[in-house]
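It is worth pausing here to work through a concrete case rather than discussing structure prediction in the abstract. The textbook approach is simple: state the sequence, then state the predicted structure, then interpret. We follow exactly that order.
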Amino acid sequence: MSDSRTPGHEVPEPIQAIKLRHPWRNVFAVVVLAMVALFLYDAAFNRPVYAWDEVGKYLFDVRVISAIGYTLQLTIYSMIIAIVLGVILAVMRLSPNPVLRSVAWAFLWVFRGTPVYVQLTFWGLVGVVYKTIDIGIPFQEPWFQFDTQAMLSYFTLAVIGLALNESAYMAEIVRAGLLAVDKGQEEAAVALGLGWWHTMSRIVLPQAMRVIIPPTGNEVISMLKTTSLVIAVPFTLELYTRTRDIAAVTYKPVPMLIVASIWYLLITSILMVGQYYLERYFAKGVGARPDTVKPLTPTEAVAIQRANETEAVAPADRNDDPDTRWPDGERSRS
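Step two, the predicted structure:
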């Protein structure tokens, strides 16, 4: 029995890949790990100023836990207001009305062009600038009058200051997300008879969220850390200021800074995990490649089958036998 494999269709030998070596990369990694280990050892045993016992003592202190609650409230309330205002400002920026575009641009110009600490300081002095809040017809006796300092607490002023500053950045993030959606999507929705609300909520925004979510997550994390500046209002019950007040009593500022840093890192890590899952949810189907269609028969088997058919139809002595010049024994017609 002859071998079914033809010389032109021999099975190639498997390739033996040799892994590329990177000796200097390994050396660099060892050096970095050694430096990290030396730093941790030095911080743990050779730096008494860190006072790790004080860190453990105040890490779960009632005052620190209460300050974490205020920090989270400042972050959540400010971001909710900032996102709502940011969407409104983004729509105003994209509006064909020149007045709305100009007002939105002026708002962004002011709140993005001045430091957030300066803005918070101004909001802390708003009770001095505007002693009362009057409601009524201009240039007439007010219908209602409220004392500003009695009506607006420092916590409320801190939320307002953080939210207005953040809304300017959120407006640009939302505007970038809306502009990232192809104009043809909106035109197709209009052609189908969808109104503005359904077009935005069902067509444009779901696609824009893929662009909006990553920077928004970064802004939430940034807002968490920006709450440490509300001392300018002054609001003194958030995490950083509370640990600083404790350090003023214990005369050990470094351990309290470590306590605040540990809690900031923990909350930031949780927010980063949430951001990761949100990004993955809104990025479904983006950049996905279709599955490769695998052949039902291996390429090697097809080649061998064709070679066998050729041998069966055209044997080596076909030139001597006129009956085998044509398939199925057909003779050539003169």
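Step three, interpretation. Residues 62-93 form the longest helix (32 residues). The first strand starts at residue 132 and ends at 135.
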